[in-house]
Amino acid sequence: TVTQGIAELRDGLLKRLRNQRGVNAEDILITSGVSGALTLAFMALINPEDEVLIPDPAFVSYKHLVNFCSGKPVFIDTYPDFQLTAARIQPCLTKKSKVLVMNSPANPTGIMCTSRDIKDIADLAKKHNLLVISDEIYHDFDYHHDFESIGRYYEKTLVLDGFSKSFAATGWRIGYAAGPAHIIREMIKLQQYTFVCAPAPAQYAIAKSLDTDLSKYIASYKKKRDMMYDGLKDNFRIVKPDGAFYFFPQAPWGNDEEFVASAIKKNLLVIPGSVFSEHNTHFRISYAASEETINRGIDILNSLTQR
Predict the structure, then answer these.
(1) CB 49 within 8 A of CB 38
(2) Cα–Cα distance measured from residue 80 to residue 141, given in angstroms and rounded to the nearest whole number
């Protein structure tokens, strides 16, 4: 199997990026999931002491991969509304700033960047010659049809995406990186001597499935989001997500680990916010579950609001 990925899948994805997101990527690499794409991208781009701007909170791997590559994570505090904006990024910039990581819709908050913020961030990135890594793994889970890729507005963007979430194919390990040809070229070299290639059978299967209609599945997740928000909004400080399938409420008492421990004692698994953040005040809920499970979870969480 070709290290870069089979031509049918590469061509299909480049076409989708152009037609659906307005992203004219120079080249593309099929990777072992978005985690594989992140690993290769950071290895290709980060030199010792390079600063990588990361929203706080954010997906767990970003910080650790930067440290693994001897870079320096710089956290952009997005509390309390979790919106990533140019105004919040600006004070974090230094002469060593090299990469900005974006994730919209975001894990763990479900919050999406607005169109205005995307354009402002693109302008800021251009002004400071930043490379933007845009993790768009949740882009299909867009409940108000507001999603935009920064790759549409800024050519120094590396778009990362995959099928673990939208196709419920977590174990298939199919993702991709699309963007500037010189970066993709170096990532291909690294993949040749590490992952070798993404799983071949899954590449052929995904290539045949790119036009799958996901609308009924996305509608069911929107319904679950609304159920959870309506069930928790009166007892928790909670921001209603625009996409993905997470909530990131503030713990009503104690720190995140104390509250999560009390939930686990009731057989409810939620994740401490400090896994995703430099703060220890919130916790993450996933509503990728049945409606019955969601209703049980709502009841348990509401019962725990008083210590």
Answers:
(1) no
(2) 22
pLDDT for residue 106: 97
Q: How far apart (Å, rounded) are the C-alpha atoms in residues 88 and 54?
A: 11
Q: Which band of pLDDT confidence, cut at 50, 70 and 90, is reported for residue 306?
A: confident
Which class in CATH covers the domain with range 215-303?
alpha beta
- Domain covering 7-207: architecture: 3-Layer(aba) Sandwich (3.40)
Beta bridge partners of 133: 101, 158
Q: Are 212 and 280 within 8 A, CB to CB? A: no
Q: Where are the domains of the chain?
A: 7-207, 215-303
Taking only the tens place, the pLDDT of each residue in 76-135 is 999 999 999 999 999 999 999 999 999 999 999 999 999 999 999 999 999 999 999 999
pLDDT at 170: 84
What pLDDT band is residue 33 in, cutting at 50, 70 and 90? very high
Instruction: Quote the CA–CA distance of 251 and 285 in Å, as a whole number.
Output: 12
Cα(167)–Cα(123) distance, rounded to whole angstroms? 33
* Predicted pLDDT at 167: 87
